[in-house]
Amino acid sequence: MNFKTNEIRHIFLDFFKNKNHEIISGNNIIPKNDDTLLFINAGMNQFKNIFLGKEKPVFKRITTLQNCLRTGGKHNDFNHVGYTNYHHTFFEMLGNFSFNDYSKEEAILFAWELMTNKKWFNIDPQKLWITVHVGDVETYQIWKKILNNKLKNNIFFLGSNNNIYENENFWQMGEIGPCGFCTEIFYQHTKNHDSNISPSVFLKKKCVEIWNIVFMQFYKNKNNTLNPLTSFSIDTGMGLERISSVLQKVKSSYEIDIFKEIINEIYNTFTIKNNNQTSIKIIADHIRSASFIIANGVLPSNEGRGYVVRRIIRRALRHGHILGIKDLFFYKIVPVLIRSMQGNNKILINKQKEIEKTIYEEEKQFFITLENGIKVLNKALNKLKNNTLNGAIIFQLYDTFGFPVDLTEEICKEKKIKIDHEGFIQCMNLQKSRSKKFKKNYFTNIENIPPVIKSKFIGYNNLSTNSKIIYISSQGKQKKTITSPDHASIILNQTTFFGESSGQIGDKGTIYNKTGIFEVYTTTKQLYSIVHFGKIIKGHLNTDDNVIAKVHCKTRRKIQANHSATHLLHSSLRYIINDQIFQKGSFIDQDHLRFDFNYYKKISLKKIFNIEKLVNKYIQKNILVEETFMELKQAKKLGVLSLFESKYSNQVRVLSIGSYSKELCGGTHVLRTGEIGYFKIIAEQNVSSGIRRIEAVTGDAAIQYNQKQESMIQEIKTIFCTNTENIIKNIKSVLNNNAILEKKLQYLNKKNELTIYKDIVNEIKKIGKYKILIKNFTDKDILLKNQLIQSLRNIKNNFIMIFTYLNQNKLSITVTISNNLLDQQNALTIFKKIICDTTIKGGGSKKIACGGGKNTKDIKKVLFNIQQWKEKIIKE
């Protein structure tokens, strides 16, 4: 019987349902509350806390079908895909689990029955081979009993008792934690077993692993000792694609029905010039992983999960290039993928347009990069002398052409060329040091502040405080005293001034006492200090002086309103657009806010209005804004939003706006959202690949923006003599009339040009066998010059044209000849004769020569030279 892949899914789940297992849906491939994984990579991931003893199972027996992705970490199949018959980035994992219920024997009996029973998969038992850990005699005895000694030679002991952990037949969750022996089932494609080769070589070369049964029975301690677990669990996994290849009697999972449909579509739709099977496999595999990742809300970007999907798409595009596909193609495979994945395509159907659009946009922007990068790389590879690609070339490809380093590595690997990693890193570090050197720093005159100089920020709830000056710097030197009008930097033991960070600018204000006043232009953080940069505008101040530090109240309140509005904007974007949107940068000052985030396309005006509406709804609710300090681990566990690629201390500040927004943030904020007043988006634009930016204003600035827009509308109404209801209609009418008039004008101009063209053609003089046109162009008909050169030279035979153009500032000359005269006449030679004894410069070829100059008096000599040349032609 030849099973279809969709049938195999159902047969597996039905079998274990008959064995009293509860069918549980697989998890989303994006793990929740587990920052150790980028993607779900095994069926057991969703039961991790049960195995760790942190949760109690709802059901003791469970069976699942889990979508998995393996592109990094411990389980990384990315570099094997396409080069082997069975590795995939995306695959479906069939599994059955027991939590302190059935034993090893029952688990093995289930597997054997499903595999060999005629009612189920009906696989020939002689084709199945079993591996058992050398230390797991119990499992060996169970298999021996089940196989009735007839197939006992089909059982292999693997591993070593000296180090039981260093073997595939011992499974462990981590360096410490739940672990246990496992037994694997292999299927032999070939007919005979060569007893002369070792079991491991035989299994690797002649067989395919189809099922792994893990017995979770120990807890591994730090000292590598094993203690029995109080509860015994079973965790099994079988790749759907692999078992499908067995049941469909093919020797590669790329030959099963779902892949056949995708691969046939690639052949039928696109022109394949190079039938590279590795490239075909990679494209067929990668369209699955890319589509499922995007369907689960991840967009291409330069970090984290976004980088994985970007890397997958770009690798597929590169292999399309190898096949000779010259146009955008990858997004066009999505419909056939959805058809082929029958039984596991619901999320793909729901997100089809988004998947296609995302891949199309990524493909479009990378297409030129790929073309240019491969040309430069191939040129460099052709010049190699020591079979190693120089790090400087890798960096040039990356920095100048935007060509990914991993793609360079893969191309070199295919050609068996080494790459200079160290040289590349050196170039990267050199670039970083250059960037730091040329980066503008507002505090260029501050020397390195000693780490012992520390100040405390107490400005979340206060705007002024009594402080003490502990450090003064001016003109790059530490000072004890500063006097008006010195520019300087001051550090206080404690301050209410916020130092620039979290996207928020530093505070302004004053530091003063009876002897002097210091105006603070801005504030920044350096090491453990908060530095106030500004100018002493009156008197003098000394180190150790007691002073009052007072933040500019109105400015701070505007900044706080904008910062809190940024958090509400972030929350609204995730709610309305995509819950995988994350902050990629921000800038907040008293005038406006700027928020960068990962997204691949322009946001429609309708959605912009919906975002504004939701933010203003939060503002109107006057929600309390609360801060909480907690451990970073706890914040991650609670799913608090943050730039987790940034560095945080163990103790973090969580800023909560009701249940709508929870983010790590060190900035200053309003006490209640009502203080923001009003929120208005003023711009939405693309910043870089996969990154968009929203700019907005709040409070009075938002009202002023709306009033300015209203004033413009009123002015437009006055200009077009219309009212608000008809303004669009009237503008369209005027533009339409203008378009009609423009067409009429073009027609008249063309008619006029035709008349001028005929008049010019009538000026052609026949001198002997030559047809000669000498013409001076004015500003009015200068546009005709190039048209005449192209048309007359190609149409007319024995033709020589000399064109001059003169205005108040410029003199130019053009000489051109028809194609049939190239053996007799030379445009450049004629041109040189015409400009003889003038200041005109130029050059050209046999066909055409031109030049010019700013000395308009040269025209007399040019005309004289033309006449001399003409007379010579007449004599000849």
Helix-strand layout with pairing:
Layout: H1 5-18, E1 22-25, H2 48-51, E2 61-69, E3 71-72, E4 75-76, E5 90-99, H3 104-116, E6 128-133, H4 137-146, E7 155-158, E8 170-172, E9 177-188, H5 199-206, E10 207-220, E11 226-239, H6 240-247, H7 257-269, H8 277-295, H9 304-323, H10 334-340, H11 346-350, H12 352-382, E12 388-389, H13 391-401, H14 405-414, E13 418-419, H15 421-438, E14 456-457, E15 464-474, E16 477-478, E17 481-483, E18 487-492, E19 494-495, E20 509-512, E21 516-526, E22 529-542, E23 546-551, H16 553-576, E24 583-588, E25 593-598, H17 605-620, E26 625-631, H18 632-637, E27 651-657, E28 661-664, E29 679-688, E30 691-698, H19 699-720, H20 727-761, E31 765-767, E32 770-777, H21 784-795, E33 799-806, E34 811-817, H22 827-834, E35 841-844, E36 848-853, H23 859-875
Parallel strand pairs: 1-2, 6-7, 12-13, 14-19, 32-33
Antiparallel strand pairs: 2-5, 3-4, 5-11, 6-9, 8-9, 9-10, 10-11, 15-16, 15-18, 15-23, 17-22, 18-22, 20-21, 20-23, 21-22, 24-25, 25-30, 26-27, 27-28, 29-30, 31-32, 33-34, 34-36, 35-36
Helix pairs in contact: 3-4, 7-8, 8-9, 8-12, 9-12, 12-13, 13-15, 16-17
Name the structural class: alpha+beta
Mean pLDDT: 86
Number of strands: 36
CATH topology of the largest domain: BirA Bifunctional Protein, domain 2
Name given to the CATH homologous superfamily of the largest domain: Bira Bifunctional Protein, Domain 2
Shape: globular
Main sheet?
A: 9 strands, mixed
Number of helical elements = 23
CATH class placement of the largest domain = Alpha Beta
Please state the second-level CATH architecture of the largest domain: 2-Layer Sandwich
How large is the share of residues in beta strands?
Answer: 25-35%
* Proportion in helices: 25-40%
